[in-house]
Write a structure and sequence with these properties.
Elements: E1 3-6, H1 10-21, E2 30-33, H2 38-48, E3 51-52, E4 63-66, H3 73-80, E5 89-92, H4 99-106, E6 110-115, E7 125-131, H5 137-148, E8 151-155, H6 162-170, H7 172-189, H8 194-214, H9 220-227, H10 233-243, H11 246-270
Helix pairs in contact: 6-11, 7-8
C-alpha cells in the first residue's frame, strides 16, 4: 500500500508517525509531496523516516492524504489535481472542506474525511471519520486502520458530524489545557509558587487521564463521583463551579467551535 501525503504539518506528521509505529505502513510506502518547497518536503520526509515523492508520482499511490490548511486547499488542488487519477482514494483532514468542495476541486475520487486530535502524536488520539460515495469495503478497512493507528477511530454516520467531532475532540485538548491554566493561576493567586502550581495542575490532569485510560469501563462521571466525598472539599469545589456556570461555559465553547466549523464549510463551499 502506497500513501502520498500532500502537507506534512503537525497533524499530518502525527498521523504518519502513528502509521509507522503501528506497522501499518513502512517508511518506503509513504511519500511526502511538496512541489512548492521541495527542500522543506525532503527535510520533513527525512525527519519522519519516509520518502520524498514528486508530484507526478501521486497517480501511482494507492491513497492520497491531504493535510494542508483549509485556506490553502484551493491552491494545492490547482497545483496537484492533474496528477490524481480518477477514482483514487483520498483522505482529507481539513476542517471546513466538504465532500462537495473536494469533488469540485479534485473530481470524482473516493473521498474520506477525518478529524483527528493532537493525541494521535502519542498514540492516544481519537479520530472521527466519514465515508464518501463509492468508497469500497477494502478502502474503508484501510482508512479505519490508518485512523485507528493513532488511538481510537470512530466512523461517523455522515460528514455533518465532522463539526461535532471538532467541538468535542478536535479542539478539546485546548479546553483541557485551558482548565489546567485556570487552576494553576488560581493556586498562584492564592500564594502558591507559580511553577509548583503549574506542576500540580499538570500532573493531576495527566494522572486523571491515565486512570480513565486504564479502565475503559470507568466513565468521567463515575470517577468524579468516587473522588467527591460527601460534604468534602471536592464536592464543595464542584458545586461552586456548577453554580458559577461551568457546564454552561463548556457547552457554549463547544457550540462555538461547531458553529465556526459550519461557517468555514459554507464559506469554502461558496468559493
Amino acid at each position: 500500500m502506497k500513501l502520498a501525503c500532500i502537507g506534512a504539518g503537525n497533524m499530518a506528521g502525527a498521523v504518519i508517525k502513528s502509521a509507522l509505529a503501528a506497522n501499518l505502513l513502512r517508511g518506503d510506502e509513504i511519500g511526502i509531496v511538496n512541489e512548492r518547497n521541495p527542500e522543506h518536503g525532503r527535510l520533513a520526509a527525512q525527519k519522519l523516516g519516509v520518502t520524498y515523492m514528486k508530484a507526478e508520482d501521486i497517480r501511482f499511490a494507492d491513497a492520497v492524504m491531504i493535510g494542508v490548511k483549509p485556506q490553502d486547499f484551493a491552491a494545492a488542488a490547482e497545483m496537484y489535481r492533474s496528477f490524481f487519477r480518477e477514482g483514487q482514494l483520498v483522505l482529507s483532514m481539513m476542517a471546513g472542506i466538504s465532500f462537495k468542495k473536494l469533488k469540485k476541486e479534485l473530481g470524482d475520487m473516493h473521498f474520506v474525511r477525518s478529524m483527528p486530535n493532537m493525541g494521535v502524536g502519542v498514540l492516544c488520539g481519537v479520530t472521527g471519520y466519514a465515508i464518501g460515495e463509492n468508497v469500497t469495503a477494502a478502502e474503508e478497512r484501510f482508512m479505519h486502520a490508518l485512523c485507528a493507528s493513532g488511538g481510537t477511530a470512530i466512523r461517523l454516520k455522515s460528514e455533518d458530524e465532522i463539526a461535532k467531532v471538532i467541538g468535542a475532540a478536535g479542539s478539546s485538548p485546548a479546553y483541557f489545557c485551558f482548565l489546567a491554566e485556570a487552576l494553576a493561576a488560581a493556586a498562584a493567586a492564592d500564594g502558591m509558587e507559580p511553577d509548583s502550581a503549574a506542576a500540580f495542575a499538570r500532573e493531576a490532569f495527566i494522572g486523571t487521564a491515565e486512570l480513565l485510560k486504564n479502565d475503559s469501563s470507568l466513565t468521567p462521571t463515575e470517577l468524579r463521583r468516587r473522588i467527591s466525598s460527601k460534604k468534602g472539599t471536592t464536592e464543595a469545589a464542584i458545586d461552586r463551579m456548577a453554580e458559577t456556570g461551568f457546564m454552561e461555559s463548556v457547552a457554549a465553547g463547544y457550540l462555538r467551535a461547531v458553529e465556526k466549523s459550519d461557517a468555514m464549510t459554507k464559506m469554502f463551499d461558496e468559493q
